[in-house]
Write a structure and sequence with these properties.
The complex is a heterodimer of chains A (about 325) and B (about 425).
Chain A: H1 2-5, H2 8-13, H3 22-60, H4 71-75, H5 84-90, H6 93-124, H7 131-143, H8 146-156, H9 162-169, H10 186-211, H11 215-223, H12 228-239, H13 241-256, H14 260-265, H15 277-287, H16 291-315, H17 318-321
Chain B: H1 2-11, H2 18-25, E1 37-43, H3 50-64, E2 68-74, H4 77-90, E3 97-100, H5 104-111, H6 123-128, E4 137-138, E5 141-142, E6 145-151, E7 153-157, H7 158-163, H8 173-185, E8 191-192, H9 199-212, H10 215-224, H11 231-243, H12 264-269, E9 275-278, H13 282-288, E10 299-303, E11 316-326, H14 333-341, H15 344-352, H16 370-381, E12 384-387, H17 389-393, H18 395-409, H19 415-427
Parallel strand pairs in B: 1-2, 1-3, 8-9, 11-12
Antiparallel strand pairs in B: 3-11, 4-5, 6-11, 7-9, 7-10
Chain lengths: ~325, ~425
C-alpha cells in the first residue's frame, strides 16, 4: 500500500510535464489500482448476481427443461429447441394478455397517479392546518410491507369482505362487486390497490421537488397579477419537470416488473385477468414445471424493460441527467 | 455395544418394530457412537395436532438412539413441494428424511437418482401398509412410504341439509343436482369451491373423469400421456353441464381453498356454504377456521356420488396421501426413523390425534374423529383409488390441466381445450 502511495505526492507537482514520464506512468497505474480496488468488489457482485443470471436465463430459454433440471440436461441435444420458447410466448394468449396488463398499469399509473400526486403535493405545499399529519397519513401505505398490505386488501375485497359490507351498510349495496374475483374488474381493482400503495411515494417525491422551486418566482408572478392556478400552471409545474420525469421513470419500471402485490392478492387470477409478465414467469418457470419457457419470458421482460429504460433515458431524462453522468456531480 | 443394548431396551417400547429397526441398523453399528448422526427431517405439518406428534416422534427416536439427533421442521405444503425440496435435491444438499409426493414428481426424482430405495432396509414396514404403497413405487422399487392416505368426498353441513329437506346424502349425481336446487331454494349457498387456488376446482373435473374413464384408460394416460380417449372430453362436458346449474358461491374464481374465513373451507366452517368437495384432511382445516377452533358439530361426510351408466368404475374414488422417503445419501438411521414413524404405535397416535387416516390397517381403530372414520369406511369400500390426477400426471401436465379446468369454470374455455392443453403440455416433456 505505502509503496503504491509514496510516489503519489510528487506526481501532482509533476503535472506540467508535457510527455509521459516514469512518474506520470506510476501515477496512472496508481489510479488504475485505485479504480480496481474500489470498483472490483462491486463489479464482481454485479457480474455474479446480475449479469451471470441474465446470461444463464438467456441460455435456459433455448432449452426445454424439466422442473428440477441439472447441468446434464443442458448437454442433451434433444432438449435444445432454439427459439421455440420465444415463438410459443409470442403466440401464448395468456402471456400477451400479461404484457397488455403491464402496459395498462403503466399507462394508468402515468395518467392517473401522476396528476393525483401533483395535485395533492401542491395542496400539501400550502400552509394548511394539520399538514404534517396529512403528509404522514398519505405516506403510511408506502411504508407498509407489500405482503401485509396485499393480504389486507385481499381480505377486505372478498365477496363477503369488509368493502362490500361497508357498501351494504351505507345503503350502496348495488355497488357491491366481486372485486378481485370478477375477471372484468380485477385489473382495475389491482390498479386501485397499487395507487393506494404507491401514490404516497409519488406525492413525497413531488413535495421534495416543490421545495426546490424558488418562492420568489411565484411571488413575482402574483405581483404581476397571476392567479394561484396560473402560478402553478406556468411556473411551479414546469419547474417540477425533473422530479416528474424521474417519478415517471420509476413508475414505468415498477409497472413493467410488477409482481409482489399481484402475487399476494390474486396470483394472476381470476382467469389470468391480473397476470403480469413477472407473475406469469414465476407461474410457468417455478410452478408450471417449465423453467425453459419461464426463462424465455424473463428474457422478454428484460428486453422490454431495457429498451424502454434506454429510450426514456435518451429522450426524456437526457437534460436531467446531463452532467450527472459525464461529470459525476449533482 | 452399549449403543445396541440401549437401543434394544428403548425399542422394546414399541412392540412389533424391534425386528425391523434392528435389521435396519445392524450395519450402521460400526459407525461408532461417538460421531453422532444428525438426521434432518422436512415435513408439511404446520398446524393442527400433527406438528406435536412429529416432535414427539423425533424426541423418542433420539432417546432410543443415543448419538442420533433428529432435526425436524415443518413447512407449508406447496412451498415444500414446489420450491424447497426440488431446490434442495438439485443442489445436492437434500434433507435426509422428507415428504415424497407420488406420481410424476416421484418418477422425476427417481430418474435423477435422488432417492434411496427402501426395499432392502425396511421390507416389513413396506409390507405393513399393503397396496397403499403402490403410488410410491417406481419399477417395483419403493422410494417412499405413506403414513396417511385418504379419499376425497363432500364435507357438508348436516343441519343445512336437514333444513333444506334433504334426508340422506346423495348417492347419484342426479340426486346431488336435486339437492343443490333444494339448498338454493332454502336460501343456502349449496357448494363452496376454492377455484382461486385452481386445484380445488380441478378436482371436480377429476371426479367426472374418474367416472367416465375406465381405470385402464386412466392408467394409460398416466403412463403414456395418451388423452385421445373421448372420455376425457366427456368429463368436461359433464362438468360444464353441472356448472350450468350454478351450484357454487359468488365469486368462486377468486376464492382461496384453505386459508382464511373467506376460503371455501372457511365458508363451510362458518355456515356460509353447505358443502365442499375436498380431501380427507379437510375436517382439520375446517376446524381451524371456526371461531372456537373446533371441528363444528354439524360437519358430515359423504363420498362423491356415482354416475349411473358411465364407463368408469362407479365405486372408484379419488385420493392421495402423504409419505416420507430418504435421500440417496442419507445415513441408514433415516430408514430406521421412517420405520419408527410407520410403527403401529406411532400410527395409532397419529390416528388418535385426528390428523388423518393412518395407512397401517390395525391403527385405523384408533381413529376418534367421526368424519375421519367415515372417510376410512369410504376408502375401504372403494374398489379402486385413483391418485389425484395432477399429482399422477406430474407438474407440467397437471398444471396445464388445472389451468384449463379453471378456464372452463370461468366460461373461458371448452372441454376440448382442457384435453388440448394437456396434450400440448405433454408434448413439451
Amino acid at each position: 500500500m505505502t509503496t503504491l502511495l509514496k510516489p503519489a505526492g510528487p506526481a501532482v507537482s509533476a503535472g506540467p510535464a508535457p510527455t509521459p514520464t516514469p512518474r506520470r506512468r506510476s501515477a496512472r497505474s496508481r489510479k488504475r489500482a485505485e479504480i480496481a480496488l474500489f470498483v472490483g468488489p462491486a463489479l464482481i457482485l454485479f457480474l455474479g448476481f446480475v449479469i451471470l443470471p441474465v446470461i444463464l436465463a438467456a441460455v435456459y430459454s433455448f432449452y426445454n427443461l424439466p422442473q428440477a433440471f441439472q447441468w446434464d440436461d443442458l448437454a442433451d441435444p434433444a432438449r435444445f429447441i432454439g427459439l421455440q420458447n420465444y415463438v410459443r410466448a409470442l403466440n401464448d394468449p395468456v402471456f400477451l394478455g400479461a404484457v397488455g396488463h403491464n402496459f395498462f398499469i403503466l399507462g394508468a399509473s402515468l395518467l392517473i397517479q401522476g396528476p393525483i400526486a401533483i395535485g395533492v403535493a401542491l395542496l400539501l405545499n400550502r400552509r394548511i392546518r394539520g399538514r404534517a399529519a396529512l403528509r404522514l397519513l398519505i405516506f403510511v401505505p408506502y411504508v407498509l410491507a407489500e405482503v401485509i398490505a396485499g393480504l389486507s386488501w385481499k381480505l377486505l375485497l372478498q365477496p363477503t369482505g369488509g368493502v362490500n359490507a361497508l357498501l351494504e351498510s351505507l345503503g350502496l349495496g348495488a355497488l357491491q362487486q366481486n372485486w378481485l374475483a370478477d375477471p372484468e374488474i380485477a385489473l382495475w381493482t389491482m390498479f386501485f390497490i397499487l395507487t393506494w400503495k404507491y401514490v404516497g411515494f409519488a406525492i413525497l417525491l413531488m413535495l421534495a421537488g416543490l421545495q426546490g422551486v424558488p418562492e420568489e418566482l411565484a411571488e413575482a408572478a402574483s405581483i404581476d397579477g397571476a392567479s394561484w392556478w396560473q402560478v402553478q400552471r406556468h411556473i411551479t409545474i414546469p419547474l417540477l419537470g425533473p422530479t416528474i420525469r424521474i417519478w415517471a421513470f420509476l413508475s414505468i419500471i415498477g409497472s413493467l416488473q410488477l409482481f409482489d402485490m399481484v402475487w399476494v392478492t390474486t396470483r394472476g387470477g381470476p382467469l389470468n385477468a391480473t397476470q403480469t409478465m413477472a407473475t406469469y414467469m414465476v407461474e410457468k418457470g417455478q410452478f408450471g414445471g417449465q423453467p425453459g419457457y419461464g426463462s424465455a419470458i424473463a428474457v422478454i421482460l428484460f428486453l422490454i424493460s431495457l429498451v424502454i429504460a434506454l429510450v426514456y433515458q435518451r429522450f426524456a431524462l437526457r437534460r436531467d441527467l446531463a452532467g450527472a453522468v459525464t461529470r459525476g456531480v449533482r | 455395544m452399549n449403543r445396541r443394548s440401549t437401543r434394544l431396551v428403548a425399542l422394546g417400547l414399541s412392540a412389533g418394530l424391534a425386528a425391523v429397526a434392528l435389521a435396519g441398523c445392524a450395519p450402521s453399528s460400526g459407525d461408532g457412537e461417538g460421531d453422532g448422526v444428525t438426521l434432518t427431517w422436512w415435513h408439511n405439518a404446520t398446524s393442527g395436532p400433527l406438528p406435536a406428534v412429529w416432535e414427539e416422534v423425533a424426541n423418542e427416536f433420539e432417546e432410543a438412539h443415543p448419538g442420533v439427533t433428529v432435526e425436524q421442521t415443518g413447512y407449508q405444503n406447496e412451498e415444500l413441494q414446489r420450491t424447497l425440496i426440488p431446490n434442495a435435491l438439485a443442489s445436492g444438499d437434500a434433507p435426509d428424511l422428507f415428504q415424497v409426493w407420488p406420481g410424476g414428481e416421484l418418477r422425476d426424482q427417481v430418474e435423477n437418482g435422488y432417492l434411496m430405495p427402501l426395499d432392502d432396509a425396511i421390507p416389513d414396514t413396506i409390507s405393513s401398509v399393503g397396496a397403499t404403497v403402490n403410488p410410491w413405487q417406481v419399477d417395483g422399487k419403493t422410494y417412499g412410504i405413506p403414513f396417511t392416505f385418504g379419499i376425497e368426498g363432500f364435507w357438508y353441513n348436516t343441519e343445512q341439509f336437514a333444513q333444506a329437506g334433504i334426508d340422506a346424502p346423495p348417492t347419484t349425481l342426479d340426486e346431488l343436482v336435486d339437492d343443490v336446487a333444494k339448498l338454493r331454494a332454502a336460501g343456502f349457498t349449496p357448494i363452496a369451491v376454492g377455484a382461486g387456488d385452481k386445484w380445488p376446482a380441478a378436482h371436480w373435473w377429476y371426479q367426472f373423469a374418474l367416472h367416465s374413464c375406465s381405470p385402464e384408460t386412466i392408467q394409460t394416460a398416466v403412463d403414456e400421456y395418451d388423452f385421445s380417449d373421448d372420455c376425457w372430453v366427456d368429463a368436461g362436458d359433464q362438468l360444464e353441464e353441472f356448472l350450468g346449474i350454478n351450484p357454487f358461491q359468488e365469486g368462486f374464481l377468486g376464492t382461496p381453498a384453505q386459508q382464511g374465513a373467506g376460503s371455501s373451507a372457511g365458508l363451510v366452517a362458518n355456515g356460509q356454504a353447505s358443502m365442499e368437495l375436498m380431501g380427507h384432511w379437510n375436517a382439520g382445516t375446517i376446524g381451524g377456521l371456526t371461531a372456537d377452533q373446533q371441528v363444528p358439530g354439524f360437519l358430515g361426510w359423504f363420498p362423491f356420488p356415482g354416475i349411473p351408466g358411465s364407463a368408469g368404475d362407479p365405486t372408484a374414488a379419488l385420493g392421495g396421501g402423504d409419505g416420507f422417503g430418504c435421500s440417496k445419501d442419507a445415513p441408514p438411521e433415516c430408514a430406521e426413523l421412517l420405520a419408527y414413524i410407520m410403527s403401529e404405535d406411532v400410527q395409532k397416535r397419529f390416528a388418535a390425534s385426528g390428523s388423518g387416516i393412518p395407512t397401517v390397517p390395525s391403527a385405523t381403530d384408533s381413529l376418534e374423529d367421526e368424519n375421519l372414520k367415515a372417510v376410512a369406511v369410504g376408502l375401504g369400500e372403494a374398489s379402486f383409488v385413483q391418485l389425484w390426477l395432477d399429482t399422477a400426471f406430474g407438474t407440467t401436465v397437471g398444471n396445464a390441466m388445472n389451468e384449463g379446468i379453471v378456464n372452463l369454470f370461468g366460461g373461458a374455455g371448452t372441454p376440448e381445450d382442457i384435453v388440448k392443453a394437456m396434450q400440448d403440455a405433454a408434448a413439451t416433456l
